[in-house]
Amino acid sequence: MKSEIILVDDDEVLLVILEKMFHKVSPDTKLRLFSSGMEALDHLANSPITGLKRFLLLDINLKDLSGWDFLNELADRNDTNSKVILITSSVSALNSEFAKKYTSVIGFFEKPLTFDKIQRILEQIREI
């Protein structure tokens, strides 16, 4: 089954860097990049998911809405096809605990993302 990996972070420079890092670790990985949580939600709402698994790497702190707002919207839409890996520069242990309340969340990583962390993210995605 094919998968779609979506990166959502309001730091556009970081998105480009992460894209290059993902392609260095796994050259065949197909990514979609969004610098806005609303744009990513629109993409999810307007794109068919037939035979496709979706994985989102979602920054908790976005300019247009928080990662928590994003997760609440996914839950309100009953989106069970999208699995989320949260990424954050916050070191608060509360974020990790709060993330466990969402069934769509399958992982949690602190920034900066390293090649090792990206490898672990891709391995986690392949296992699902």
TrEMBL record:
The modification 4-aspartylphosphate is found at D59. It comes from the Bacteria. PROSITE patterns: RESPONSE_REGULATORY (PS50110). Pfam families: Response_reg. The keyword Nucleotidyltransferase does not apply. Residues 4-126 form the Response regulatory domain. One of its GO terms (biological process) is phosphorelay signal transduction system. Keywords: Phosphoprotein. The keyword Phosphoprotein applies. PANTHER family: RESPONSE REGULATOR RCP1, RESPONSE REGULATOR RCP1-RELATED. This is Response regulator receiver domain-containing protein. It comes from Algoriphagus alkaliphilus.
